[in-house]
Amino acid sequence: MKAYFRGWMGAFGALALTMLAAPKARCADAPLNFIIIMCDSLRFDTLECYSSQYPRLRAAKGEAQMPHIDNFARRATIFERCYVGSYPTVPNRKDLFTGKLVFPFEGWSPLSPDAVTFAQELVKAGYWTQMIQDTPHTLNKGFNFQRDFNGWQFIRGQETDNPGPRPLAQPGDPAKTRGTENWSRHLGNLQEYRHYEADSYCAQTMATAARWLERNYDLGPFALYIDTFDPHEPWDSPRWYEDMYWTGEDCEAYRYPIYGKADLYSEAELARMRAMYAAEATLVDRWVGYLLESIERMGLMDNSIIVITGDHGVSTGDHGYTGKNAMPLYEVIAHVPLLIRMPGQTESRRVKELTQHCDLMPTLLDFASVTPRKALDGISLRPALEGKPLPSRPYVFTRGNDGLTVTSEEWSLVYPPSGQQDRASSVPELFHLPSDPTQTKNVLSENLEQARAMWDAYNAWMAEALGAENTQAPKRP
């Protein structure tokens, strides 16, 4: 009897495990799931798929290594020319969540009570929406970006988030460190909560997302939004990641550098910054890879649209700056990665048309057969994802912290933040991107009409958006 019982239970257990593990086959007309992975400050030049446009990020011991996202790109659509609209972190999420370019009206502020978000629209269409993130800025201080999701989970302790541990004294020269109070608090959080690589914030976020999928992969259409603040500074990856990129030379590690001129730092300190950033990016790649493996194991690659993107870049000495907000919005800041994989996609596609994060909401709604209730600035990327031509834009605009960049198919018109304009050698700068992707040669004087046409396009768009004369425009070239 006992043997029979054990045998019956063993068979039942095996059947139960099979039922739990076997992904359901997708009906042809079943709605698709959406999985969006946002990695804050992920530079597009860390990825192999952009290296034909721009030199790949290089640290002291070699190029950035991003094997998991690189592999994902080989089976995804690569949007080669995706640019930030509203900048930086919080305004960028507003663009993504609402399908609108918010920079003429809003900046670093809570989600507007009357904003219609992709989560709100998808919930009404029968989707379950879930937010999982460690990025603190859209949740803390009443910013309320979780508002329209059915569920949300917040991994505590990143940068300005204060779950409670005592701040610690910071190493190095305080004059070379940004936000010393935040950095001291962050050090306290690390001492209190981090003991293993799996305790790092991006690891916790991706593992939490994987666990959510284990319980809900067959929930029926869902939209899972995942947002990690890494590889944003402070750069705090485990030492073995830094060893991949740093020679071991003895110099101070400024993990939370100022936003300003790079001449404050020695060449060795800047080289170490690049190594620390590359290490943090590789840490993110490793845990995004963990999540992607989980997605594949559950069969979700066959019924889900998967998006990987970043909100802006960061400078580790590029153009003579560290950080971002105090510098012009060059390619290293404004040009971002955007990779989207369709269900069952086995080969990469490349899209050369200009795109922005405000395009993601109309794309999701298009695939969910939802008509947006409000007019959107973004366009659906569905044609490109299905191998068809995408409507082209003549220009895209990047605006934030009083800086402005206008980008066309070939040209980049760059205005520094207004506080720097009286000190700049040239305002604005104009670059021809096909011949000068790293923006080292200002060709404004010999292409003045091109620059004026770009300024005129921006001014006209702003006047239409504002419904009044544009008083926010910098001086016409």
In round numbers, the mean pLDDT is: 92
Considering DSSP H and I runs of 4 or more, what fraction of the residues is helical?
25-40%
Kindly name the structural category. alpha/beta
Largest sheet: 9 strands, mixed
Query: Could you tell me how far the N terminus lies from the C terminus, measured between alpha carbons in angstroms?
Result: 91 Å
Which parts are unreliable, with pLDDT below 50 for 5 consecutive residues or more? 1-23
Classified in CATH, the superfamily of the largest domain is: Alkaline Phosphatase, subunit A
Strand content: 15-25%
Q: Total domains, how many?
A: 2
Task: From the 3D structure, determine the CATH topology of the largest domain.
Answer: Alkaline Phosphatase, subunit A
